[in-house]
Design goal:
Largest sheet: 2 strands, antiparallel
Helix content: over 70%
Oligomer: single chain
Strand content: under 5%
Shape: globular
Strand order of the largest sheet: 1-4
Structural class: mainly alpha
C-alpha cells in the first residue's frame, strides 16, 4: 500500500491541476478589484442612438474621473449582484433543463437515439458532419447559443451509442453552433445589433461571412472527426476516459437492442418540432428572447409529460431533477457577471476599453484590423454578452475605423469574431460553462481538447480581417 501511495503523490506533484471553475472566476474577480486601485478611473458618456433607440457610448466623451476602488466587502456584495444581473439567463437554463428532463422521461428521446444510431451503424462518422452542419445553421441564422444547451444530453447519448465520447457529443452542438455564431451570417444578436450601431444596412456583407462559415465548418468537422476516429479505435485515448468508464458502468444503453418507437413517442417528437418552429418564428417575427423561449420550452415539457402519461407529481419531480443537474452551470453565469460589476463599480471598464482602442490607433491598416479583433476578444472576457459588448464597444470602434480608413463592415467583422471565437474558450463564457457542466466535462479537459482548434480559428479570423481590409469590405 505504501508504495502505491508514494507513486500517487509523485504523480500529483508533477501534474498541475486547473482550479475549480468557481475558484478560477473568483480569482479573476479579485484581480479586477485590484485593478481598480491601479488603473486610472474614467468614463464615457452614454447617449441614446437616434437610429436604433439603444443606449450606446459617445466615443468622444472619455474623461478621467475620481478613483473609486472596490474594497473587499464590495467584492463580496458584487457576487449576489452578479447573480441578480444574470438571473434571466440563470433561470432560463433551469427552466429549459427541467422541461427537457420531463421530455426525456417520456422515453421518446432514448427511443429516437436508438433509431438514429441503428440507421447510422457502419456509417457512424456521418453523424459528425450532419449534426455540425445543422447546429451551425442555428448559430448562423438564429444566433442560438444558450438555446442549444438543451440538445447536449441527446447529442452525447447519440455519440456514446455510436462508440464515441461526451467530448464528441458536445462538439456536435457546441462547436457546430459556434461555427454558425462566429461566421454570423444573419445572427440577430451580434451582426444585427452591431450593424445597427454602425448604421450599415441590416445583414449586409453576407457574401464574405458565407465564405467564413464554409471555411470554419470544414476545418471544425475535420478536427472533430480526427479525434472521433482516434478514440473509436482506442477508447483509452479519450481525454475523458475515466468519465466514460464511469458512465459505461452506470449506463443501461445497449445499441444492439432496438427500443420500439411508440405512437406516444411520435407525438412527443411532433410537440418538439412544433415548439422549435414556434421559437424560430417568434425570434424572427416578434423579436422573442429568453423569457419567451423559456415559456415555449415549459409548454413543450408539460404537453409532452401528459402525452407520455407522466402524472403532474412525477412531472414536478423530473423538472427538479433536470434543474438539479445543471446547478453548476446555471450559477456560474452569475458568478462570471461579477467581474463586469467590479470593473463598472471601480469605474475602470471604460478606461480599459479606451486604452485598448488607443493601442491600435497608430498601426497600419491591416494590422489595426487584426488588432481590433484581438481587442474585442479580450473585452469578451469581461463582457461575455454579445449584445452588451456591441453596445459598449461598437460606438468606439466605428469612429476608430473611420479615422484609420478601415470600413465599418470590417469593424463589425472584428467584433463578431472577437465576441464569438472566445465564447468556447474563456471560463467567463456562461454558455460554455453550462454546457460543460451538463456534459460532466472538466474545464481543463475541454481546453486540452479544444485549444488547438481555438488557435486555428483565431488564425483564420486574422486572415479574414486582412482580406476584409484589402478588399475594403463594405458597403462602407
Amino acid at each position: 500500500g505504501g508504495v502505491k501511495m508514494t507513486e500517487k503523490t509523485k504523480v500529483t506533484n508533477k501534474t498541475f491541476k486547473i482550479p475549480h471553475t468557481y475558484v478560477l472566476i473568483f480569482c479573476i474577480v479579485i484581480i479586477a478589484a485590484l485593478l481598480t486601485y491601479i488603473v486610472p478611473a474614467g468614463e464615457y458618456a452614454r447617449v441614446e442612438d437616434p437610429n436604433t433607440g439603444r443606449t450606446v457610448v459617445d466615443p468622444n466623451s472619455f474623461t478621467k474621473v475620481e478613483r473609486n476602488p472596490v474594497n473587499p466587502f464590495e467584492v463580496l456584495t458584487a457576487v449576489p449582484r452578479g447573480m441578480i444581473a444574470a438571473a434571466q439567463i440563470t433561470f432560463f437554463i433551469f427552466i429549459v433543463a427541467g422541461s427537457f428532463q420531463i421530455i426525456t422521461s417520456t422515453g421518446a428521446i432514448e427511443a429516437g437515439i436508438y433509431k438514429v444510431a441503428n440507421m447510422l451503424r457502419g456509417k457512424e462518422l456521418l453523424l459528425i458532419p450532419i449534426f455540425m452542419f445543422l447546429f451551425s445553421l442555428t448559430g448562423a441564422f438564429l444566433g442560438f447559443a444558450e438555446e442549444n444547451i438543451v440538445f447536449i444530453p441527446v447529442a452525447i447519448s447519440l455519440a456514446r451509442a455510436l462508440g464515441y465520447d461526451a467530448i464528441v457529443g458536445m462538439s456536435l452542438v457546441t462547436l457546430g453552433g459556434a461555427v454558425g455564431f462566429n461566421s454570423a451570417m444573419m445572427n440577430p444578436f451580434t451582426v444585427g445589433i452591431a450593424q445597427g450601431i454602425a448604421e450599415l444596412p441590416l445583414f449586409s456583407g453576407i457574401g464574405l461571412r458565407f465564405i467564413v462559415w464554409l471555411v470554419l465548418l470544414a476545418v471544425s468537422i475535420y478536427y472533430v472527426m480526427r479525434y472521433a476516429m482516434k478514440i473509436k479505435d482506442k477508447p483509452e485515448l479519450s481525454i475523458i476516459a475515466e468519465v466514460e468508464l464511469e458512465e459505461r458502468k452506470n449506463s443501461t444503453f445497449d445499441i444492439g437492442e432496438d427500443k420500439k418507437l411508440l405512437p406516444s413517442h411520435y407525438l412527443v417528437f411532433l410537440v418538439l418540432a412544433a415548439g422549435l418552429a414556434t421559437i424560430v418564428y417568434g425570434v424572427y417575427k416578434f423579436g422573442w428572447y429568453i423569457n419567451e423561449i423559456a415559456a415555449v420550452f415549459l409548454g413543450m415539457g408539460i404537453i409532452s409529460g401528459f402525452i407520455g402519461k407522466i402524472g403532474p407529481n412525477k412531472m414536478a419531480q423530473e423538472f427538479i431533477n433536470g434543474a438539479r443537474g445543471i446547478v453548476f452551470g446555471a450559477l456560474v453565469v452569475g458568478i462570471a457577471r461579477t467581474i463586469l460589476i467590479v470593473l463598472q463599480d471601480g469605474l475602470i471598464l471604460d478606461s480599459i476599453i479606451y486604452y485598448l482602442a488607443s493601442l491600435i490607433s497608430g498601426l497600419p491598416k491591416a494590422l489595426a484590423a487584426v488588432g481590433m479583433f484581438v481587442i474585442q476578444s479580450l473585452i469578451n472576457f469581461v463582457i461575455p454578452s454579445g449584445s452588451g459588448q456591441a453596445a459598449t464597444t461598437m460606438p468606439i470602434m466605428v469612429p476608430l475605423a473611420d479615422i484609420l480608413g478601415i470600413s465599418r463592415q470590417t469593424a463589425v467583422l472584428a467584433f463578431h469574431f472577437g465576441d464569438g471565437f472566445s465564447n468556447t474558450f474563456t471560463p467567463t463564457a456562461s454558455t460554455l460553462m453550462a454546457s460543460l457542466s451538463i456534459a460532466k466535462i472538466a474545464y481543463d479537459k475541454w481546453l486540452k481538447y479544444y485549444a488547438k482548434l481555438f488557435f486555428i480559428w483565431s488564425l483564420i479570423g486574422a486572415i479574414f480581417m486582412i482580406i476584409a481590409t484589402v478588399i475594403n469590405y463594405g458597403p462602407f
